[in-house]
Amino acid sequence: MTTELTTDDKVMVLLDRLAGLSSLAVAFSGGADSALVLAAAVRALGTGRVLAVTAVSDSLAAEELDVARRFAASLGVRHLLPHTAEAANPGYRANGRDRCYFCKSEVLDVITRVAAEHGFANTATGTNADDAVDPFRPGIRAADERGVLAPLRDAGLTKAEVRRTSKAWGLVTWDKPAAPCLASRVAYGVEVTPARLHRIEAAERVVRDLLVRAGLPVTDLRVRDLGDRVRVELDAGLVPRAADLPGLAPAVRDAGFHGAQVDVAAFRSGALNIEPLRS
Fold this sequence. Notes:
The chain is an alpha/beta fold.
């Protein structure tokens, strides 16, 4: 009879495996998953044998970079911020359904190189057990091809368990909403360019500010660039009131989507994965 591991059991597995490493560099996005890996590595190895590395590019929102900086500093971990050039890869710019593979390949090549230059032989991501069974995760293949560790996945920790453990440890990231890269907002088949990424970031910032001023603080917000139009996705309960805000569509257009049709809809994680490829 097989006994299923509890969350506490899985956390012990995580810490034991990390403790067996000589040192660890964490590909740190600032999200809940990689934050837990970073905090666990500090518990298992101490700050001196842990390095946080955040890839900086047009696909990373400035707000997310600030979050990552503050969290690494709170742990006393050295934090490096190398720039990556995924936009130089034609496969990434073409934005097919394997875009994430090209992105992660560049990001992890840079992070593992930087880690090695600073004496860190091992690199880990925040991939969790739920990610491992998601059919739309080509970036996981890029990590596995490079021998990058996935300690949360290997310990069997799901997203819910990541959040539960992070809360128990007092990590501020425990309830942080998912914040995938800005390129994930561009419909497949629509070319990813710095200009598109910048206007998505700008539009999300002005929409969030507009909603807060209207008394509609939002948890999940995405501005989807669909090529010929824009879809603002947000918490389902806010959709009717947000759609009635007269300034929302003009704010999105002024952020860079000039003349575009602007729709408002309920947020769906991975919404673009189930839509047809655009050309």
